[in-house]
Design goal:
Rossmann fold; ProC C-terminal domain-like fold; alpha/beta
Amino acid sequence: MNRIGIIGVGNMGGAIARGLLEAGTVRPSQLAICDPHVEALESLTQAWPEITCFTAADALCEVSQTVVLAVKPYLVQDVITQCGDLLADKAVISIAAGITVDKLKAMLEPLGARWLRVMPNTPAMVGEAMTAFCAEHTLTPEEFAFARSVFDSLGKTAVLPERMFDGVIALSGSSPAYVYMLIEAMADAGVREGIPWAEACRMAAQTVLGSALMVLNTGTHPAALRNAVCSPAGTTIDAVEELERKGFRAAVMDAMAVCAEKSREMGRR
């Protein structure tokens, strides 16, 4: 049995665990989880009592063939040191920002472990993640296929070279925050026009969801879809003109450039 172990079941690690179980990718008996905070473990075991739980990472590694490092970047080295030789001949998947392929190689190759760098995002919690796999890895074809099935159960996946990963973090890893800001601003504008907050928020979120599906399902360039909404001398073109005047697109692109640069800085530390 290929048991998958997840070290760290906070927002992202917990989302991965729930996604796997709800999609039926693994059975509860095939999943082990580890977190020093017992309440994080209980939030999963209350729904799936057959999950194997640990508060120590080395104990999880003893019973897992695939190990997901879902801890904060500054904890990755400590966790790997704690697990040590227990990682030998195992597949280790890191989702930590700033932990580059070179860092994984330096930390894991001496232990005889294979490694893969992955960058998911928080919509994994609702089965709509966008996950990037680093093309440079040392997993076997079977292990990579299993890893792909894990994250396919959480949404969409792509395989990209590591040189693009700082852009990936800006484009999909951090971008849910930008989208939430957009939804909040749209809802606030709706409230200003007299729409109750709860209804305004629901309408804004559904509009963003529907617009995203239009891009994905039609394959049409976003600019063409935008133009289709802009009737001549209508309301939308005036709104678009105001967004352009206020530097909407430039602000988004500049914010993502700052995000990518921070990712590069973290990778150099």
